[in-house]
Specification:
Layout: H1 9-19, H2 24-31, H3 35-43, H4 50-60, H5 88-110, E1 125-127, H6 130-143, H7 154-160, E2 164-168, E3 176-181, E4 184-190, H8 195-210, E5 211-213, H9 216-231, H10 234-241, H11 250-260, H12 264-273, H13 279-292, H14 310-320, H15 326-333
Parallel strand pairs: 1-5, 2-4
Antiparallel strand pairs: 3-4
């Protein structure tokens, strides 16, 4: 973690290079400089000229203002959960992208004088069985007054409870991660995936936040069970499908997917775990799915992905009060906020 005055231009160059998974040589070739010159920039031995900074910004897909942004002291990725399928370069790139996003988020918050709500869920519920996990999913729903209705927008719910949510571009080996930042949970998931998969990933990461699991081998299984139970509670599954079924229709599962925002495959796993269908029949369904290519891409319309809105709302507040300029807001957000640029302040 860097203090506010410690993130130099060189440090910014290095962070952006790692986020892009670029070697010194690859970056040097893009801006027509030597790898040694890039290395000296990153170590602070030389400062790039304004022309070189422009070329670096283009090569690294950032705005020039990025190189002059301080790093807040509170950025910490110490509890980032590792993904065994990711190589070292990919993991470094993902961590750098998360840090850069979180820095922007925290800087936006720093413009406000009041304290934001802290995470107030009764997290760290101890669990030792899947039945315990089911109970916790129900408790969290009850605590958050969600009832048993479908959760229309999962990201909105979590943001309203004080959890920071981020979406990042990355390759396929990463689905999501969870860590604490200054006592606030942060969930980051992969961008550009169908909404049902996105929601399952987010609910899975929420499981890591609220569950306290003594056995590490049980942790992932518990988080997946929490995600399914949170999005599609047992009582609702029985209400929709009955206590026991010998057969299911594909359209029936498809309609449930679009009502509750959970994938067809996750629904099959869920009703198998609840013993609504037998393990043997679930296996038959998955064999059929594999033959038809449904394990890769499920049939019918895709469930639309969700987008975090809190960061955008805070920026619009700052813009409306003329606390920051549009160019500053653009650099901090790096999104589609300025589709609104021509709308007048009401």
């Amino acid at each position: 973690t860097k203090g506010e005055n410690e993130m130099s231009i060189g440090g910014r160059i290095k962070l952006a290079r790692k986020a892009n998974a670029m070697s010194l040589r690859a970056l040097a070739e893009k801006i027509d400089k030597s790898a040694m010159a890039i290395s000296k920039y990153e170590r602070g031995e030389n400062n790039p000229s304004s022309g070189v900074l422009l070329r670096l910004a283009k090569a690294l897909n950032v705005k020039v203002e990025y190189f002059f942004r301080p790093a807040p002291e509170t950025v910490s990725l110490s509890l980032f959960r590792k993904h065994s399928s990711l190589g070292k370069t990919a993991l470094v790139s993902i961590k750098a992208r998360i840090q850069e996003w979180l820095e922007r988020y925290l800087e936006i918050e720093s413009f406000f004088e009041y304290e934001f709500n802290t995470f107030n869920a009764l997290h760290n519920y101890p669990v030792s069985s899947l039945e315990d996990v089911e109970d916790v999913a129900n408790k969290v729903r009850k605590l958050w007054n969600l009832g048993l209705d479908p959760i229309d927008n999962l990201i909105d719910v979590l943001e309203s409870k004080g959890i920071k949510i981020g979406l990042i571009d990355c390759d396929g080996g990463f689905d999501g991660c969870t860590f604490m930042n200054n006592g606030i949970p942060v969930i980051v998931v992969r961008k550009d995936i169908p909404g049902d998969r996105q929601r399952l990933n987010i609910a899975h990461e929420l499981g890591h936040i609220v569950l306290k699991v003594a056995d590490e081998k049980f942790e992932e299984k518990a988080a997946f069970r929490f995600a399914a139970a949170f999005l599609f509670p047992k009582e609702i599954a029985i209400q929709e499908l009955g206590k026991y079924r010998t057969k299911l229709r594909l359209k029936e599962v498809y309609l449930i997917k679009h009502k509750y925002g959970i994938s067809m495959q996750a629904i099959i796993y869920r009703v198998k775990d609840l013993r609504i269908i037998s393990e043997r029949y679930a296996k038959e369904i998955f064999i059929s799915f594999s033959k038809q290519g449904f394990r890769v891409e499920e049939p019918g319309d895709k469930f639309p992905p969700e987008k975090p809105k809190r960061m955008e709302r805070l920026l619009l507040h700052l813009l409306a009060e003329d606390i920051i300029t549009e160019s500053r807001a653009e650099e901090l957000y790096e999104g589609e906020i300025f589709e609104l640029r021509n709308m007048v302040t009401v």
